[in-house]
Amino acid sequence: MRRGIRSGKTDALTGSLLVIYTLAQALGISPLEIYQMPAQLVQDLLAIHGIVEEIKAEEMEKQTKKMK
Question: Is this structure's pTM higher than 0.85?
Answer without folding.
Answer: no
